[in-house]
């Protein structure tokens, strides 16, 4: 497969060794319980720990944890992190945004680099 064209509307979709499409996804997810007080960091840390244990590339910032991988793997990590809080009996809110871009990988860092390059040229 050729390198993906950032400006193309459609990309060739890579497949794994079983012929299953590899649907690369970058997710921004925030998972937190309701009704536990003003400080959520301890609970958020429990969810982030599950995401980090998934082995998928991830990074946590002030508002979200970004995760990258095949769509099924990303959704499983989000589900498992959500269940970590929900199984303790907490009402749990999940904010999730997905950027699904077949043919691309490494976007968790490449997107930021691309924006920095554009800004540097200005």
UniProtKB/TrEMBL annotation:
<dbReference type="GO" id="GO:0005829">
    <property type="term" value="C:cytosol"/>
</dbReference>
<dbReference type="Pfam" id="PF01910">
    <property type="entry name" value="Thiamine_BP"/>
</dbReference>
<dbReference type="InterPro" id="IPR002767">
    <property type="entry name" value="Thiamine_BP"/>
</dbReference>
<protein>
    <recommendedName>
        <fullName>Thiamine-binding protein domain-containing protein</fullName>
    </recommendedName>
</protein>
<dbReference type="InterPro" id="IPR029756">
    <property type="entry name" value="MTH1187/YkoF-like"/>
</dbReference>
<feature type="domain" description="Thiamine-binding protein">
    <location>
        <begin position="27"/>
        <end position="115"/>
    </location>
</feature>
<comment type="similarity">
    <text>Belongs to the UPF0045 family.</text>
</comment>
<dbReference type="InterPro" id="IPR051614">
    <property type="entry name" value="UPF0045_domain"/>
</dbReference>
